[in-house]
Write a structure and sequence with these properties.
2 domains; four-stranded antiparallel beta sheet; 40% helix; Aspartate Aminotransferase, domain 1; Aspartate Aminotransferase, domain 2; alpha/beta; globular; binds pyridoxal-5'-phosphate; 14 helices
């Protein structure tokens, strides 16, 4: 099977596995796991932030960020297609008692002009606007990203209105690969950042939450309360550290591969339109007279290619570490000759 469904499907490369096997471990609930401590210190330093917390998933790191920066009854502003709103099973409401005020971003991206009308004044009957959550890159919009300048404008806006700024940076390194920006510039403007190790970076499990020492202290306690305190997690942290140290530069290859695929999709009759490609994701709409996305998924599965239906007519394909050049060629060939 050639699996284009998601960049979460990667397996550890042999060098990563070797690091995992050799990892020094201890009890991380006692803060005694040297590999977890090393990963957290490395990541905090990479973003120039005070501290980091190793979490089991990006959902957990996002939800922790929201929980420790809000009070029940608060409102957060986010794009209507954001992961925290669509794909975290209502965690906002369940864990933190907050509500999302969803906005229509520009391909998923928010800016001060969009946010301005939705900041509530301090009346007894209005929810308190407390936080802005942005995604970088934006998954549902096909991997679009913010520039540093755009994020800085959001930071200034948040300062003016006393709002927290959280960045769901599940794929932030895909964005930084395109812009060439320094992670430290992003660390300087966010109150919290969540980064997935288990997507394009190719680690089997885990995400990081980054923030101030005080924020991470609170999140660490909450993580324990939610049952997320892990013991010899160093075996997993070692994979994460390997990923951060070795797999960032190669994200470029994923972007090139997905562009190759997109150029083929633009030529075939069963595709109506292909969204612009920004990073490692391509979204395209099928010609609905010919085929819907579920039929398309099935048809490609017969050729041992997996893609995800992303709406009745929309399909998503994502490039990642386990997609070889040969797989790109095979896929292009099959897409060209599909009947
Ligand atoms: C994958 C993803 C997450 C986190 O997902 P988990 O499966 O919980 O690790 C968060 N935000 C975005 C935009 C994602 O794509």
């Amino acid at each position: 099977m050639i699996d284009w469904r998601s960049d979460t499907v990667t397996r550890p490369v042999p060098e990563m596995l070797a690091c995992m096997m050799q990892a020094a471990v201890g009890d991380d609930v006692f803060k005694e796991d040297p590999s977890v401590n090393a990963l957290e210190a490395y990541a905090a330093d990479l973003f120039g932030m005070e501290a980091a917390l190793f979490c089991s998933s990006g959902t957990m790191s996002n939800q922790l960020a929201i929980n420790v920066q809000t009070q029940p009854g608060d409102e957060i502003l986010c794009d209507r297609q954001s992961h925290i709103f669509l794909y975290e099973t209502g965690g906002l409401a369940v864990h933190s008692g907050v509500q999302a005020h969803i906005l229509q971003g520009d391909a998923g991206r928010l800016n001060p002009e969009m946010l301005q009308p939705h900041i509530h004044a301090e009346h007894d009957w209005l929810t308190r606007t407390q936080m802005v959550c942005i995604e970088n890159t934006v998954n549902r919009a096909g991997g679009t990203y913010y520039t540093l300048q755009e994020a800085q404008a959001l930071r200034t806006f948040c300062n003016t209105h006393h709002l927290k700024l959280h960045i769901d940076g599940a794929r932030i390194f895909n964005a930084l690969t395109e812009t060439g920006e320094d992670p430290k510039s992003w660390g300087a403007l966010a109150d919290s950042i969540s980064v997935c190790l288990s997507k394009g970076l190719g680690a089997p499990v885990g995400s990081l939450l980054l923030g101030s020492a005080e924020l991470i202290k609170k999140a660490r306690k909450k993580r324990k309360q939610w049952g997320g305190g892990m013991r010899q997690a160093g075996f997993l942290a070692a994979a994460g550290l390997y990923a951060l140290q070795h797999h960032i530069p190669r994200l470029k290859d994923d972007h090139i591969k997905i562009k190759t695929l997109a150029s083929v999709l633009q030529q075939v009759a069963y595709v109506e339109d292909v969204f612009p490609v920004y990073t490692n994701i391509v979204l395209f709409n099928l010609n609905s007279d010919l085929c819907n996305s579920v039929q398309f998924e099935k048809k490609l599965a017969e050729h041992k290619i997996r893609v995800s239906a992303f709406g009745s007519n929309t399909v998503r394909m994502v490039s990642h570490l386990d997609i070889t050049d040969a797989m790109v060629n095979t896929t292009c060939d099959i897409l060209m000759h599909l009947t």
